[in-house]
Amino acid sequence: ARLANQIAAGEVVERPASVVKELVENSIDAGANRIEVDIEKGGHRLIRVRDNGGGIAKEELTLALSRHATSKIASLDDLEAIMSLGFRGEALASVSSVSRLTLSSRTEGASEAWAAQAEGRDMEVKLSPVAHPVGTTVEVHDLFFNTPARRKFLKAEKTEFAHIDELVRRIALSRMDVALVLRHNGKVMRQYPALRGDNLDARLGAVCGQDFCRHLLALDNQHQALRLWGWVSEAPRNHPDLQYCYVNGRMMKDKLINHAVREAFGGRLAEGQHGAYVLYLELPANQVDVNVHPAKHEVRFHDARLVHDFIARALADALAQSGL
Ligand code: ADP
Ligand code: MG
């Protein structure tokens, strides 16, 4: 069982930041509105994600650590309509096969909290009582300790932490209603309070910098069932790498979207320059496949042309109105 999970881990678990991504997405799926991420030594030594979500019942803990166990999908038909972030049911099993992972949790109304750990070649799960508030904590110690080849590919502590930091920023922009804390070696590096409603600019400033906000252009466009909203900076020159895009709440690095944005910015950009943006595309779940890549960064739109042209036009209109 461990070997099969390790093979799967090869696809999903590239580096500490990919572990953080899977764990934080699980917390969001569990309805948490406060998530704390603790990192030691760039994630080489420890990755800990603690949330105040719904928790996992004692009887479900063993299942949560086994491969292809997901509580989020009842049948194959659900795959199309799935809206939760994780659905393949292999993140925890994969990560626990290449690290020393402890899953601790407590559900509302439960009198005790339990910790689960999978050990040995057969990944046998051991349960023990622990003290834990309602919610879940996943601790990942010594990532890749048993896969020396992968361990060798880990970069310096600083580099790995930079990837985690960037990931947390991306998540911070995707769910402004969730409070996030990121610590490295015990020091608070990022702290985003939960926001609701109309003061979203506060988090935008915290994540993207006040400069991005000073030259901001807000847009909100609808065409048929498509909606594009968010912000474009009128000073893209100063922010070459501020490009955040979300499709139905998921972070995406998508070629089609990038292309549409470039087209909209058109002659405004010099060679090698990029526009700065934070954009949210919303469309019916049955018009998009999100399962294209295991790391889930890419999407496939059923009507790619329609989506591309809608984004390009919405942005071009907004830019034209701004008189840029
Ligand atoms: P997936 O997210 O694809 O379902 P995972 O391996 O990431 O697969 O998680 C397995 C299962 O464990 C989830 O379906 C969920 O039921 C449970 N789980 C994992 N993390 C959490 C969490 N932070 N809070 C509550 N339940 C969780
Ligand atoms: Mg998951």
From TrEMBL:
Keywords: DNA damage, DNA repair. Residues 204-320 form the DNA mismatch repair protein S5 domain. GO terms for cellular component: mismatch repair complex. GO terms for biological process: mismatch repair. Belongs to the DNA mismatch repair MutL/HexB family. The gene is mutL. It comes from the Bacteria. This protein is involved in the repair of mismatches in DNA. It is required for dam-dependent methyl-directed DNA mismatch repair. May act as a 'molecular matchmaker', a protein that promotes the formation of a stable complex between two or more DNA-binding proteins in an ATP-dependent manner without itself being part of a final effector complex. This is DNA mismatch repair protein MutL. GO terms for molecular function: ATP binding; ATP hydrolysis activity; ATP-dependent DNA damage sensor activity; mismatched DNA binding.
